[in-house]
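dumping this here before i forget
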Amino acid sequence: VGDPQEQGERLSLNAHWDIKVDSKSIGWLDKEAFTRKSVEFAELEQNLKVPGLTILVKLGYALKIEPWKPGHPMPDQSGAWEAVVDLSAVKMPLTIRCRRPGDLIRPFGMNQPVKLKKYLHTHNGPTVKLMLGFPPLVIADDEEVIWIPGVGLSNKLKVTSLPSHSLSWIKLQDEAIYLV
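structure:
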């Protein structure tokens, strides 16, 4: 199953299959699977538990938001899968959802918001597709996008004195049973 939005040459074989060729590979693209996956992600919208563990079964991941504990190592703040943040400026509730037309983000280090679409065009790396697939999922408060996991954080989460929370993605194991 591939993402028809990826770069490369595509050849449509029929109503169900495409072939994609790029400099590194040749792949089969199941058009129906891509449509099903897009619909599943589009339907995904869930409020996050702050603090707490929110299990996202369709993604195969859980997002853990817990109060910051002094002495914990600081993760890379470049938008990776873990972050230490200050949630004092966000407007609750926090939600995980697909991006929407007109979404804004204040990129880390900037005070002015930019359109999320433009931001993603300049920051869309291969890590986005490792977990989130298509379309990219975002964490948002009531005003704007505050985190695109694997891509970047909003300046709204910037720690100016002490962090308030840590955010981390946890891969769910197929055979595990989770109690919430």
